[in-house]
Amino acid sequence: MYFNKVSSAHLEQLKSLVGSQNIFVDQVTLQNYSHDETENLSYLPEVVIKPENTQQVSVLLKFCNENNIPVTPRGAGTGLSGGSLPVYGGISLSMEKMNKIIKLDERNLQAHVEPGVITEVLMEEAAKLNLLYPVDPSSKGSCFIGGNVAHGSGGPRVVKYGTLRDYILNLEIVLPNGDVIWTGANTLKYASGYNLTQLMIGSEGTLAVITKIVVKLIPKPQYNLVMLASFPSAESACEAVSAVFRAGMTPSALEFMERAGMEWVVKYEGIKFEIKDHVKAYLLVEVDGNNLDLLRSDCEKIGEVLFGYECDDILLGESASEKDELWMMRRKMPLSVKANSVYKEEDTVVPRAELPVLLKGIKDIGAKYGFKSVCYGHAGDGNLHVNIIKDSMSEEDWKNKLPLGIHEIMELAVKLGGTLSGEHGIGLIQQPFMNIKFSEVSLQLMRSIKNVFDPKGILNPGKMIN
Amino acid sequence: MYFNKVSSAHLEQLKSLVGSQNIFVDQVTLQNYSHDETENLSYLPEVVIKPENTQQVSVLLKFCNENNIPVTPRGAGTGLSGGSLPVYGGISLSMEKMNKIIKLDERNLQAHVEPGVITEVLMEEAAKLNLLYPVDPSSKGSCFIGGNVAHGSGGPRVVKYGTLRDYILNLEIVLPNGDVIWTGANTLKYASGYNLTQLMIGSEGTLAVITKIVVKLIPKPQYNLVMLASFPSAESACEAVSAVFRAGMTPSALEFMERAGMEWVVKYEGIKFEIKDHVKAYLLVEVDGNNLDLLRSDCEKIGEVLFGYECDDILLGESASEKDELWMMRRKMPLSVKANSVYKEEDTVVPRAELPVLLKGIKDIGAKYGFKSVCYGHAGDGNLHVNIIKDSMSEEDWKNKLPLGIHEIMELAVKLGGTLSGEHGIGLIQQPFMNIKFSEVSLQLMRSIKNVFDPKGILNPGKMIN
Fold first, then answer.
1. Please, which residues have CB within 8 angstroms of residue A199's CB and are 6 or more apart in sequence?
2. Ranges for the FAD-binding PCMH-type domain (chains A, B) (predicted)?
3. Is residue A300 part of a domain?
4. Do A420 and B448 touch (CB under 8 A)?
5. Which of helix, strand or coil describes residue A343?
6. Any CB–CB contact under 8 A between B242 and chain A?
7. Is A14 touching B (CB cutoff 8 A)?
8. Residue A324, domain CATH
């Protein structure tokens, strides 16, 4: 790949194309846009551009394509795979100014939004109409829906409501040559040619830039209940997860948390919560629906299943504040882990019932390579976030031995029918593991698809596949 | 495109590659595989091949690719867009012998199946374990799941459970050069590179041949109830559809049927059912769940909504036989329409609340071009099957004027935010309308994607895009 640096002549032309008020070259801004939430990586862009509309994105991409200038699209910078890092410099294309909810279509249960809308803002606006957009990553309070689409982001409610993929109906995208198209239709069903909408979801800004999104909404359930169940062993908690579904229950969230994660949440968030000595893991279970009696009965049934797997205590959250408190322990866990130690997070996912095998394997691999890990995540989906803790590990081991251990974890996940990432994406940091999951034939298909959309390779270079 | 005819030398080589017991050249077989359920179209293949396993598909495709022999994959031949018609001759590749349910994975709520499994067979096997595969096209008793995946097939329960797209986790596919890959992972979440699984769904056998399918199953609801509501106007029935969802209800099916369709079902199926004089349309509503009292209360609430839109009568089906009878009227409608007259079926889909506008538009266009239509379909999804009835229309008008009318119907659907096909696919017969929905930029992207997978164009040539 050969790219040009952004010259002062380029910069003048860019200003005339997208307006100087949208172009930033000061060091503070460049620094701010050099990283995301992925560990402590930093790659400086040469320019940060914040377009205001599709037309500006179009002329900008066309210009960069003609001038071989790399463009790295960026949402809110909450990514955990380094997807928005401008590793080849060039332009960091921040979508933050394109943050309008264009239309909340109550008649059709749809929202038309720009990519810079914060996910929780959309959820709250929908809730005012008694509608639900159920895809809520932990970062929902700050992440953009555009980034969610680009990375195929998930969250706890996938287990009942399906993935983001099931809620994105149509996308306006800008191709690197400046062409603007809609990928599909604003319909619940679609059998009209190759599904470009679905191809864009999870393409991590490597094919085109998303400029509008049509989202499916559903009626909002009126009630929910939350339970926190404690277990004397992490494996039995994991075993209980698939048993819940086999018993015919479909909770709206089923989250797994290891003891250490809970300890750190309690410590760093200053929460009053007693972690009993023998407890090794927790499951957070949410049920939702329109009939409170039925939900209580669901909780009882789920409780019975859990007690069959060594669960020794269940806390029930009924009031809003009780439920918030229970959820907070899960939602704040990523930040508490971060506060505790240098760490590295992996996003393994396996078929649900293989979770206990995965968890045990991770611990065994850790013992072999000398690292500790704290695991939590969307157990109902088989999606386990593995937080590898640096703690007392030497810099050298962290740099040289750890990658071997992570490689083994990925091999295990793939062997169990799973994959490298459930919802964080490949981005920069999972790229070295792609050949564990994919044969050269598959990788070559992906490279060729990339080439169809972006023949000069200017969009988010250095990500996902190489 | 340049293709070779299948010579006797080719045939001998094919026999050695896939076994002579799997190769058919007799006229009866060729005739049988020359058509599907799409009106009265017929294109003779030169050879019918019924492979028994992936390896045979692989060597066969490699051979055909090297020898420029077109291959048209075929499921059960129940398609409604001509997708399985071998318009360039060559080989009709029937997947009927690859019909094993490889594994019903109760622990993970997944099924691993071959493409030739009949959809209803999978549903019934899953039901024995109290599991649900909810994607049930009208042809579920005969269609293959492989064909369902290839065409992105739907059915009535999409409205609650989502499309087929939400239930397909992973695919084994064979590329035209014989390479075999898995497209994804057996996981509920997936953010690991371009989603080749989703790209394959609805690709209509033009990219690769599907040889194994991993399907997501869900706990089967224990109860359901069915209502048949009658309306004095088709528009008010359509208006009621989106009102049901706006009232916070999510039925497991919400089907629309025009009076004439009902008359023909009664006539051709010999059903005892009184169609009152003033009734112009019906809605069939199904609710399902695990609590019968709640379902009864849901039916009441839905009833209240319907009565607000001129509904004058609701029949409730509680017993299995009552429910079957009500469903049969909807399920047999396609066959009854077929029995009544030469017809042509379109598969328009629009955002749900635009249904009344679409329906009125179709009637107006019919009046302009002199054709009658009977509409029914998955109203809850905005998916309307438009059956244009030949009746007394002259051959000349049928041939020359009708396509102009259909063109206008498609234009209207697209203008309303919809698309050409919701679940039947583009295949052969919707191809002329692709440029109504798609710009040349989009079409060129699709052609280039085709070229990535199938550079010599041997797979299902003449379909979807040209």
1. A183, A207, A449, B194, B195, B198, B199
2. 41-220
3. yes
4. no
5. strand
6. yes
7. no
8. 3.30.70.2190
